[in-house]
Amino acid sequence: MGGTIRFLLNDTEISLTEAGSRDTLLDFLRLNRRLTGTKEGCAEGDCGACTVLVGRLHHGRLHYEPINACIRFLASCHGCHVVTVEHLRGPQGLHPVQAAMVEHHGSQCGFCTPGFVMALYGLWMQNPRPDMLAVETALQGNLCRCTGYEPIVKAAFAASQAGGQNFDALTVERDRVTAWLADLPRQRVTVSRGDDRAILPADAADLAQVLAENPKATIVAGATDVGLWVTKFLRDISPAVFIGHLQDLKHIQITPGQISIGAGVTYSEFEPFILQHFPEALDYWRRIGGWQVRNAGTIGGNVANGSPIGETPPLLIALGATMTLCSAAGTRDIAVEDFFIDYGKQDRRPGEFVQAIHVPLRGDARIAAYKVSKRHHADITASAAAFHIETDGATITDARVAFGGMAATPKRAANAEAALRGQPFSAETFEAAAHAVANDFTPLSDWRASAEYRQTLAANFFRRFWLEQSGQDHRLRRVE
């Protein structure tokens, strides 16, 4: 076991023997290292002013992604390469992304600019020739309140024309950084500040042992929600067990009839599989937070958190997914829909963690997923629905419809499903289901939506599904 957090920060090796579970990367950068290009805007992962790149070995390959430093805990940076805006450079000083922002007047007050630069830098590294959709997707998690987005988008395309990755610092340093990260020993790391402890298990087996020793520990994967527990509610999360680095929780395996997803797989890592196997849900998937959130947040963490407005449970439930829970005592499998017992209560025993999620691949079922929120991107769900409808051509043989934001837990619409099964695949059938769903939920009113609005949405989701599936010429969703 070790007691030192080690990572690379730009071109400097960092070793920390003292750190608390609640220490954030943003505070370390600004207060300890005086790297003040990284800004604090919202402290909740919404505005992108704190965007940095984090590189990690993924199955032996070094991969960089933009993340929010404000909700990234310092302990979770162990074994990473953290890159801030100060590390960018080009042949004449400015990096092509920075030079394009200058040329196209992409900055006004400048507060948000470093975050935009780092998001565009991440795009520039991954996609040298982006289209408009790729640029918009890369900028989902960045907010600007004075410049407007048009000059920033122009800068993105101008940077792509500049090329020049042969001089880019992360390209030139890639072999050295890869070797340094690969040489780090794979062992449990525990650091603390007083009674405040952070633990990084060596692997999934060690995680089970850590949780057996600390059954009340807070498990932290991407911290896209736990980060707010600290920055907004000042909650004590010690001892915190960080699992985002565990490679044996990042597998994606496809077998006949099923795809198994390790609990540590991020939304971004799974997006290509959504495109391949569930393309109808791709727009829904890309609306989970902003790009930085999808790069950090995990599917297993979203399920384990148990939020009634989490985006992945409705889709997983509609698809009939199951999950594997693991502890030092062994493993057990349950349906994802059975995991949610009540608000804030899940079927996870002391010492257990979500190990994997298994999604059936079922033939020619009709699938859809919808989300309504106040902002189109990077916003919390007001109401969401996922459909999985099987037919024999003219008749509905099975229906699974799950909702988020309508009850204390993600939940299936049993009455609406009953109104669909065995009935003709017709407008009249889906209209009947739209009326029946009123008996499935008694939603609350809050600042996101009123109960009446949520009930109206629930009914309209059925009408929308029918119109889209019937082949009628209605433009019901944004055309990319």
Note down, in words, how this protein is organized.
It is an enzyme of class 1 (oxidoreductase). This is Xanthine dehydrogenase small subunit. Residues 3-88 form the 2Fe-2S ferredoxin-type domain. InterPro entries: 2Fe-2S-bd, 2Fe-2S-bd_dom_sf, 2Fe-2S_ferredoxin-like_sf, 2Fe-2S_ferredoxin-type, 2Fe2S_fd_BS, Ald_Oxase/xanthine_DH-like, Beta-grasp_dom_sf, CO_DH_flav_C. The chain is an alpha+beta fold. It folds into four domains: 5-86 and 173-242, Beta-grasp domain (Ubiquitin-like (UB roll)); 96-167, [2Fe-2S]-binding domain (DNA polymerase, domain 1, Orthogonal Bundle), CATH 1.10.150.120; 247-360, Uridine Diphospho-n-acetylenolpyruvylglucosamine Reductase, domain 3, CATH 3.30.465.10; 366-469, Enolase-like, domain 1 (2-Layer Sandwich), CATH 3.30.390. The chain contains 18 helices and 20 strands. Strands 2-1-5-3-4 form a five-stranded mixed β-sheet. A five-stranded antiparallel β-sheet has the order 10-11-16-12-13. A four-stranded mixed β-sheet has the order 6-7-9-8, covered by helices on one side. Strand 18 (383-391) and strand 19 form a beta hairpin. The longest helix has 19 residues, at 451-469. 48% of the residues are buried.
Mean pLDDT: 94
Number of strands: 20
Q: How would you characterize the largest beta sheet?
A: 5 strands, mixed
CATH topology title of the largest domain: Ubiquitin-like (UB roll)
CATH-level-4 superfamily name of the largest domain: Beta-grasp domain
The level-1 CATH class of the largest domain: Alpha Beta
Give helix % range. Answer: 25-40%
Number of helices: 18
C-alpha geometry: globular
Strand order of the largest sheet: 2-1-5-3-4
Integer count of domains? 4
Please indicate the percent range of residues in DSSP E strands (runs of 2 or more): 15-25%
Give the termini distance in whole angstroms. Answer: 50 Å
CATH architecture of the largest domain: Roll
Structural class: alpha+beta
Q: Give the low-pLDDT segments.
A: none
Rg result = 23 Å
